Amino acid sequence: xxxxxxxxxxxxxxxxxxxxxxxxxxxxxxxxxxxxxxxxxxxxxxxxxxxxxxxxxxxxxxxxxxxxxxxxxxxxxxxxxxxxxxxxxxxxxxxxxxxxxxxxxxxxxxxxxxxxxxxxxxxxxxxxxxxxxxxxxxxxxxxxxxxxxxxxxxxxxxxxxxxxxxxxxxxxxxxxxxxxxxxxxxxxxxxxxxxxxxxxxxxxxxxxxxxxxxxxxxxxxxxxxxxxxxxxxxxxxxxxxxxxxxxxxxxxxxxxxxxxxxxxxxxxxxxxxxxxxxxxxxxxxxxxxxxxxxxxxxxxxxxxxxxxxxxxxxxxxxxxxxxxxxxxxxxxxxxxxxxxxxxxxxxxxxxxxxxxxxxxxxxxxxxxxxxxxxxxxxxxxxxxxxxxxxxxxxxxxxxxxxxxxxxxxxxxxxxxxxxxxxxxxxxx
Length: 428
Hints:
Blueprint: H1 6-32, H2 37-52, H3 72-85, H4 91-117, H5 120-131, H6 134-143, H7 147-162, H8 167-180, H9 188-198, H10 200-224, H11 226-234, H12 246-252, H13 257-264, H14 267-285, H15 290-304, H16 320-323, H17 325-344, H18 353-379
Helix pairs in contact: 1-4, 1-5, 1-6, 2-3, 2-4, 4-5, 4-6, 4-7, 5-17, 6-17, 7-8, 7-9, 7-15, 8-10, 9-10, 9-14, 14-15, 15-18, 17-18
InterPro entries: RgtA/B/C-like
GO molecular function, one term: glycosyltransferase activity
Protein name: Glycosyltransferase family 39 protein
């Protein structure tokens, strides 16, 4: 029998219902619109993969397409979609289906993660906020890149590791997140750190799950066309657009272009290293809050990103609700207004001054949210990694009782076998 209370079951039903409505709404948007240029690019990639194969695609010239910077699992996904096109499935809504489905699953993850750490009411509100987040409606229902899919696998890996103690499955999810899109590579080290903090058996199972999936998906490409994979995927630095973040701020401040080029070139590796270090440190400090550490790391990645892309705005959108309801709502509403505007006018790479001003406000809100997440992790009492929901947390050893004075003592009362220890207070 489920250990969920009736209130928790009702809350889960509400979350499921709203998430399903949001999913159907996004798919309706996908069916009614052609989407941005990325939809056409993915169509071209799918046709090229059908001719060259999902492995050799990294070595093939694509004269009328941008750089094919997607990891190997995305290649297999596009090959499957090309086959489905052959039986009449329209490509435009199909390419956006994975992101919409990923958002649905992410909402459930937000509910489960927050429910372990906050009140049921807060968990429900955060999950509903993630389901209705305007940023995700635009990036998943209209744009349809694989960013939301990668984020979903990253959050799932953290939840499986920290809350369910499914270490091998968590390793598989961690490998999947970078096999769909390479961006979440910044969270993989902190997942390994969290698994190490649990213990060597957990670390071994996590590593085995990660290695098995990684070798199965990446192995053929690494063995066949390693140079193409390295150039297209591992060294890809993002697009050349500038309408969000530190590069745009630098240009507003009239920083000389050679310095900006340095930051966007070799300097971005230092930025990535700092982000990875922050995430790993947070996971070491409090492995029980690994999902929150993942959210903070993805938020920091977008905060310090030297590349701009409207779909990148999806990276922290759901994870901010793990930090708190207000961070998620503030970012979702302000940045969601920007995505609605640029997508509605079908010019995602050309922002007006007003859109860039609201983007700057969203960037500031993202920075404040990341700071809140770091503060909550660092000020919480240190705890070991949590157990699955069906298992109680280990209780601290009782302090030795003071020696009793000599003399007769009343007999000790028989222990109440039906009594249960009070629930451990969970830190926010």
